[in-house]
Write a structure and sequence with these properties.
Oxoglu/Fe-dep_dioxygenase_dom, iron ion binding, 7-stranded antiparallel sheet, 15 strands, about 260 residues, 4-stranded antiparallel sheet, alpha+beta, oxidoreductase, Jelly Rolls
């Protein structure tokens, strides 16, 4: 795994960094099963629309985003007092997975200050063919841009940053299951459509230091969870109890009943 010093240098310079083999294959397989379980439970939702209000009621989801290995990575960037702001699977089905247009995450988020980090956990192998994450290195030094709606093409967010992006500078982030990419809220990033026969699934996890205030009028925010350290300035959702038959079964689930 990349050293702490190198990771922080990469992040400061480029706005992103990658940690390889953070989670074991067994847990990643359970995450893949979780996506299938969610899609069966919520058949009206697309694979690109599994998140937010589902998170805090789901014991496996909370177990996954609270994994100590992920929190150890997050702590490098936000410090020891860590909360979940939001989490979202983006599971692009074969041949039809939608693109994510160029954007900056921070332009969408009700956070003050905008101190937050995204961990992008690869559930599947991610390659240019199946729509891997793409970034513009160094663009995290830019201010947050305005957003513009885009309904002329099908896309995950329905909007994009209102700025011309020089795609010749884009870097494709090829990831294996269990790898974690970390990026800054201001970095311009996106992903192409999945035109391959292979699914491309990743889990976005947005961690904040507990000194960052969630300014949404919904309080507590529906997916806000205290995961490590002191609670700080926000109100959090309680951890869900595992109920057999209601929740997906997973390793250690009965300990959470």
């Amino acid at each position: 795994m990349v050293t702490r010093e190198v990771a922080l240098q990469d992040y400061d310079r480029d706005g992103y960094t990658i940690f390889r083999n953070v989670l074991d294959r067994e847990l990643i397989d359970e995450a893949s099963d979780h996506v299938a379980w969610l899609q069966a439970k919520y058949p009206d939702r697309l694979g690109e629309d599994l998140g937010t209000e589902l998170v805090a009621r789901d014991p496996f989801w909370v177990r996954l985003v609270g994994d100590e290995r992920l929190l150890d990575v997050a702590e490098l960037f936000v410090g020891p007092d860590i909360a979940l702001f939001a989490s979202h699977y983006i599971s692009k089905p074969p041949f039809s997975g939608m693109p994510v247009l160029w954007h900056q995450d921070g332009a969408y988020w009700p956070l003050e200050p905008m101190r937050v980090v995204t961990l992008w956990l690869a559930v599947d192998e991610a390659t240019p063919e199946n729509g891997c994450l793409r970034v513009i290195p160094g663009s995290h030094s830019e201010n947050l841009h305005e957003l513009r709606q885009r309904d002329d093409i099908d896309n995950v967010l329905g909007s994009e940053s209102a700025v011309t992006v020089n795609e010749s500078k884009a870097v494709d982030l090829v990831l294996s299951p269990g790898d974690v990419e970390v990026h800054h809220p201001n970095i311009l990033h996106g992903s192409d459509a999945n035109t391959s026969p292979r699914r491309r699934c990743g889990l976005t996890i947005r961690y904040i230091p507990t000194s960052t205030r969630i300014t949404s009028e919904e309080q507590p925010f529906v997916s806000a969870l205290l995961l490590r350290g002191e609670p700080g300035v926000n109100v959090y959702q309680p951890f869900p109890k595992y109920v057999a038959g209601e929740h997906m079964s997973f390793t250690g689930a009965t300990n959470l009943a």
